[in-house]
Amino acid sequence: MAAGAGGRSAAEAYRPNRYVSLPAELDPAAYDASPEKRRAEAERLAIRSQLKRQYQLQLNDPHRPAVIEDPALIRWAYARTQNVYPTFRPTPKTSFLGAVFAIGPILFWISVFKADRDRKEKLIKEGKYKRPLSLF
Amino acid sequence: MLKIIIPTIMLLPTALLSPKASLWTNTTTYSLLIATISLQWLNPTYFPHKNMTPWTGIDQISAPLLVLSCWLLPLMLLASQNHLQQEPLVRKRTFIVTLTTIQPFIILAFSATELTLFYISFEATLIPTLILITRWGNQPERLSAGIYLLFYTLISSLPLLVTILHLHTQIGTLHMPTLELTHPLLTHSWTGTLSGLALLMAFMVKAPLYGLHLWLPKAHVEAPIAGSMLLAALLLKLGGYGIMRVTLLMGPLTDRLSYPFLALALWGALMTSSICLRQTDLKSLIAYSSVSHMGLVIAASMIQTDWSFSGAMILMISHGLTSSMLFCLANTNYERTHSRILLLTRGLQPLLPLMSVWWLLANLTNMALPPTTNLMAELTIMIALFNWSTPTIILTGLATLLTASYTLFMLSMTQRGTLPTHLTSIHNSNTREHLLMTLHIFPMLLLMLKPELISGVI
């Protein structure tokens, strides 16, 4: 690799930052994997290949089901749509969120509208309310 | 009026006695015929108020809703043909009978001149809808959906019944044209305030208002397509229409009472639009967009000016047609993939290009693109609210922005993107579906040319 400006090598110039993680090819640890890491990799590969085998068994089945379901997707969709209330628990964070996004803005906007309407009512009663677009 | 109600009631024996081969043809063409006869109500020669029978009358805010309810019945029948194909004949007849039972009650509700009759028919539409959702929905969650729908509406309408009976004994009549001539009865006392709240709550739940809207996503999602169309296009409008009718009884109370409802409606429009951006379920997205649009309708109905009522009317009609069309489109997806998950229903534009035209049109009207009537309605409501109080423009403007963003999100998720890999073949769109979409978009396009028909003014 040609040396960059200032004589830095590519590995030094392209460190991971907040927006970009280090690709596997530039990570020196990718090539000396510890035994734990290799075992973990092997486990993940086994899970992936089992899922792929199940999928391909259904895909190439002569009596193929009309829709091949992905159980992980179904669990995820269930968790996001139907399992929200049963797994809800009032915590300081959720109470704060509820107050800030649900109760607070309602009270805020009620007070804003009321203040604005009262101001307008006062102006009308004093006769000072300007109606620039009036047809009269 | 009788020439609409009697044929609608006679639709029941038609559905029960038609031979199998012509069941759908008979009921659909018959209801289409009733719909074309109902178009005469849009003719504005009899307004401000036309008394057709001693108990029913139409004026310019009920006529468009009546025409919409008559128009929607053939569309609902068209949309339900596919998922009922496998059912035995008796169940098909039962389904059509349930659908057509709602029809006379809705017509009666929108044309009632007596508030008690309005209440009775308002409640009567609940039972067939409940049957539709809990019997013909597709997922086991339909039971909880039915319970939410039933109990939310019933709990909020019991105070309404009590207040209606009390007002009847106080005023002596509940005939709505006469009520406009009586002096307002409710004062700022506790009794008056609670009566006013009781009058409004049932319709706020039905409309729905943001804090009371929990039944709506459940009911819309779990209902079969005809149930979703019915709920979105008609039953929600019962709430908006009820608010418009009932606020004439409430007199000086709305000065104080309108603030919480306005804040809830406008903030709710913002909140539900933001929820739409995070939805994983397509029908749920459309259901929350219904809440958002009806929030604007409630806000407009609470300030009770001419322009705001007019905007609320146009929005109710255009939202009815748009939302119903979106549910039909989502149903065509569901019938092909048997899944409502957005990630699984992607990339339809290369697969079904003609249907993507309807998707585009429905989404364009949903985000209130000029020159559709949705835009006319939203602009009218925004201007009326701005005149009422200046800071509302922040909320309505943000709501419009979020509406456009979640609509584009829905469009790009369903039409563009990677094709689903787990499907090997999907049926091509058939003529019935194209006809259904045409019949939805056609009134919207025509109304662009003459919006005075639905705008609630002479």
State the helix count of chain A. 4
First and last CA, distance of chain A: 80 Å
List the secondary-structure elements of chain A in sequence, H or E.
Answer: HHHH
Largest sheet of chain A: none
Q: Would you identify the regions of chain A where 5 or more consecutive residues have pLDDT less than 50?
A: none
Fraction of residues in H or I helices of chain A: 55-70%
Number of strands of chain A: 0
Structural class by helix and strand composition of chain A: mainly alpha
Keywords (chain B): Electron transport, Membrane, Mitochondrion, NAD, Respiratory chain, Translocase, Transmembrane, Transmembrane helix, Transport, Ubiquinone
EC number (chain B): 7.1.1.2
Main location (chain B): mitochondrion
Family (chain B): Belongs to the complex I subunit 4 family.
Descriptive report:
- The complex is a heterodimer of chains A (136) and B (458).
- Chain A has helices at 10-13, 35-59, 71-81, 92-126.
- By secondary structure, chain A is an all-alpha fold.
- Chain A is elongated, with a radius of gyration of 31 Å.
- The model of chain A has no long low-confidence stretch (mean pLDDT 85).
- Chain B is mainly alpha-helical and 458 residues long.
- Chain B has one domain (1-453).
- In chain B, a hairpin with a 5-residue loop joins strand 1 (49-51) and strand 2 (57-59).
- In chain B, helix 3 packs antiparallel against helix 4 and helix 16 (353-366) runs antiparallel to helix 18 (392-415).
- The longest helix of chain B is centred in the last third of the chain and has 32 residues, at 306-337.
- Chain B is globular.
- Chain B: It is found in: Mitochondrion membrane.
